[in-house]
Each structure stands twice: as structure tokens, then as C-alpha cells.
Write a structure and sequence with these properties.
Blueprint lengths: L1 E5 L5 H12 L3 E6 L10 E2 L7 H7 L1 H11 L3 E5 L1 H11 L4 E4 L3 H4 L6 H13 L2 E4 L2 H9 L7 E3 L19 E4 L9 H12 L6 E5 L5 H11 L5 E5 L3 H10 L2 E4 L8 H9 L2 E5 L2 H4 L3 E2 L2 E5 L4 H12 L2 H18 L2 H19 L1
Parallel strand pairs: 1-2, 1-4, 2-3, 4-5, 5-6, 6-7, 8-9, 8-11, 9-10, 11-12, 12-14, 13-14
Helix pairs in contact: 2-4, 4-6, 8-9, 8-13, 11-14
């Protein structure tokens, strides 16, 4: 297939998606307003210094001309309000639109132009991909045709993400992007409570984002010196290695569909302590594979961490339980093969 993918080239999810389809022998051209790694070969689009509501539609004429020359079999758009909108503006079919979570779960709750734009895009898609049932339900509620919505988790590479080597006692790991959605202040405050009574604990924060400076300053104020570390952006192998070392994976996200970071932790044996969200409960439950806490509740997070540290036998059981879950439901190669098959069926139908 010739696949025209529209998405943010700077985001690792886009990079992995494109690399997967290329590895399968498909010709994939990626268009993006954002710059990505040189090796990805993203084709730039004009990016005006304007709000997104204007910046993305203004790129549509240049995109339409470039896509016409590429002559794809399918248009593949990621994140509904921006690249999904660009895909719909091309008026080419088949069109697949992939929702990433906050585009429907948060923006979909807004009224007016935001909601209207989402509905307009979803109604024009021949396929709407969602990685969790709460996200698929949001897509249907916003006007996507039920028979065109597919709930398929992207999954994780089970060969890369696995238990591997010695686990470091007391190591707590965060791999979420440093932006308000992931509520790192609550995470730091919760961990600070635990560190006050457990001298062998330490926190490692991977990733980057617009809130990093704020989080670094908060950590310096609230956490003991020498017991926390910012390791920056890691590649997939680096994340897998840290998860295989950590006793606990922690996420204080305020909204999620299926969190790939959670699935990676489950595959590697880092026991999840995560916010109590519908998307997380599709994979774990409190006391069954994880301990949950109310979003925004640092005291609840501290209690969940304490419960996890206090029961070594339960942690061992949780690790085995979680690995079985991801092997059964979140095998990247198997799940992406299903998405590929849906693309191919749409292309056959169009021909």
C-alpha cells in the first residue's frame, strides 16, 4: 500500500507507527507541521505562527498538492482536531482517523467550534481507530458511524518490553511527558510523603515537556537531595531498561485512554500505581495488578505507594498477572496486523 500519514513527527507514537508500516513493506509518506528525527523523513508543511485552529487548516492547500502527487491508496490521520481535520479537508478516501485520547476525551467535552470540528471529521472517516473502549464510545457519541469505529490497542513490543535483570529496591519510575495533563506536581508531592519515612526509595523521571522546569524546581524543594533524577527523553530501549529496574511505575495522569506507558510497565514488571481512570481500569484494577488513587490526590498516591511497597508477595503476583494481560491483549505485532488488515480491506473496497 501507499500510505499518506498525517501526524506530529516529533511524537514517538507517530514515529513508531510509521516505522511499523514501513517495516511491513508499505510505502509511507509522513507529512507534519512539526519537525521530527532526520531519519524519519517527514515532509514539512507550512507552519504559520498562529493558534492551531488556524495553523492546521492553512496547511491544507500545500498538503493537497503534495498528496495528489504521491497518489496514496489510503490517508492515515492522527489526532482528530488537527491532522484528522487536515485529512478530512483533503476529501480523499479511504480516510482513517486515529484518536489519541485527549482529542476526544477532553476536547470532546467542550462545546461550540471544538465539538463541531470533531463531529465533522469523524463523520467523514471511513475508519476511526481507538485504543480503548472509553475512547471508542466518545467517538461514537461525537458522530462516528458505529460500524466504522474499531477499538484496537496499539500494544507494545513484548520482545523489547520484558523483565530483564535485577530489580532495584525502592525505585519509583515515571515515564510520562512533563505537561499539565500528566499532573507531575501531584506525583512529586505523593512521592515526597513516602520518602519521608522510607529512606531507601528514590524517584526517576524520564521524559521532557513544557512543565519540566516547574517540576525540577518542585522536586528540589520537596524531595531529598540525591534521591531523585531527571534522565530526559529516552528511546524505546532506554525506557524498557529503566522499567525492568523499577519496582513501581507511577502515573498521576488526569485523563487517559489506553496508556502505552502503562502497558510498557506491565510488560516489564514495574508494578503500576496509577490514577483511577476509566482508561486505566480497562487494564488493571485496584488490588488486581495495580493500586489506584483518585486523580489529583497526593495523599491517595502516597497511600497507594505504601500499600505496594508493604507487600512483596502481592507485587510478585501482580507482575505475573500483568504480563499475562499484555501477552493476551496488547501484543503490538498482532494488534498492528489487525489494523493493517483493516487498511487493506478499505483499499480493496475503494478499488
Amino acid at each position: 500500500m501507499r500510505i499518506a500519514t498525517l501526524g506530529n513527527a516529533a511524537v514517538v507514537h507517530t514515529q513508531r507507527w510509521v516505522e511499523h508500516f514501513r517495516s511491513r513493506g508499505h510505502e509511507v509518506a509522513l507529512w507534519s507541521l512539526e519537525a521530527g528525527p532526520a531519519g524519519l523523513g517527514a515532509r514539512p508543511l507550512p507552519a504559520w505562527p498562529l493558534p492551531g485552529a488556524f495553523r492546521y487548516p492553512l496547511a491544507a492547500p500545500a498538503l493537497a498538492q503534495a498528496v495528489r502527487k504521491f497518489a496514496p491508496d489510503i490517508v492515515d490521520s492522527h489526532y482528530v482536531p488537527n491532522y484528522g481535520l487536515l485529512g478530512a479537508l483533503l476529501n480523499r478516501h479511504p480516510l482513517s482517523v486515529t484518536a489519541w485520547g485527549s482529542d476526544l476525551l477532553l476536547l470532546g467535552e467542550r462545546g461550540g467550534l471544538h465539538r463541531s470540528r470533531l463531529r465533522w471529521v469523524l463523520r467523514r472517516a471511513d475508519l476511526v481507530l481507538a485504543d480503548a473502549e472509553n475512547l471508542a464510545s466518545a467517538a461514537r457519541n461525537l458522530g462516528a458511524r458505529t460500524e466504522r469505529v474499531a477499538c484496537i490497542p496499539w500494544g507494545v513490543d513484548l520482545g523489547r518490553y520484558r523483565e530483564d535483570g535485577a530489580r532495584e529496591p525502592g525505585l519509583i519510575l515515571s515515564t510520562r511527558r512533563m505537561e499539565p495533563l500528566y499532573d507531575l506536581p501531584t506525583l512529586v508531592e505523593g512521592v515526597a510523603r513516602v520518602m519521608a519515612t522510607r529512606p531507601n526509595t528514590r524517584l526517576v523521571l524520564a521524559g521532557d515537556g513544557p512543565s519540566r522546569s516547574e517540576i525540577e524546581q518542585l522536586a528540589a524543594r520537596r524531595l531529598p537531595a540525591g534521591r531523585y533524577q531527571f534522565v530526559g527523553v529516552l528511546d524505546a530501549q532506554g525506557i524498557a531498561e529503566w522499567l525492568a529496574r523499577a519496582e513501581i511505575y507511577v502515573s498521576a495522569s488526569l485523563s487517559d485512554s489506553t496508556s502505552l506507558s502503562l502497558l510498557e510497565a506491565m510488560a516489564c514488571g514495574a508494578v503500576p500505581v496509577v490514577s483511577d481512570l476509566v482508561g486505566n481500569r480497562e487494564w488493571v484494577a485496584d488490588g488486581a495488578g495495580a493500586h489506584l488513587f483518585p486523580p489529583g490526590d497526593s495523599a491517595g498516591l502516597a497511600l497507594a505507594l505504601e500499600r505496594t511497597f508493604d507487600d512483596a508477595a502481592w507485587r510478585d503476583h501482580a507482575r505475573r498477572h500483568n504480563r499475562q494481560i499484555v501477552e493476551r491483549r496488547a501484543d503490538h505485532s498482532r494488534n498492528m496486523a489487525e489494523i493493517e488488515a483493516r487498511f487493506e480491506a478499505l483499499v480493496r473496497g475503494a478499488r
